[in-house]
Amino acid sequence: MIALLQRVSEARVNIEGQTVGAIGPGLLVLVCAEPADTEALGLKLLNKVLKLRIFADDAGKMNRSVQDVGGGLLIVSQFTLAADTTGGNRPGFTNAAPPTLGESLYDAFVAAARAAHPQVATGRFGADMQVHLVNDGPVTIPMRLTA
Prior knowledge:
Layout: E1 2-15, E2 18-23, E3 26-32, H1 39-51, E4 55-56, E5 62-64, H2 66-69, E6 72-77, H3 99-116, E7 120-122, E8 130-144
Parallel strand pairs: 3-6, 6-7
Antiparallel strand pairs: 1-2, 1-3, 1-8, 4-5
């Protein structure tokens, strides 16, 4: 699975002009499933996301996790993270999981996040979404776990 984490002061997802998910300080987590991914791999990725120390401590060092600071998670599906840009000028997306598998793994990731963390908001799988964010830092961390 692939994730792109952005530490944010605030973030929200709009669909057709309506806000469907929003958080204050925390992490925007863009998630993409690949064909060989499993729910177990998604859980491993989630645990890493929740424990990643990318928030400042009292000394200003990145030493706290989203759980430590009580931040929110805004989880958004984004198959384009699996883009293959090696040939030509149009990216290919065959490295992304098929939609049925992608949605199932995304839903499992979100369910596990809601069970493990008190503040979780989401986008909607497969929807045309507008993501608004204020990147804090800026801090942007790519993550990829493979089976």
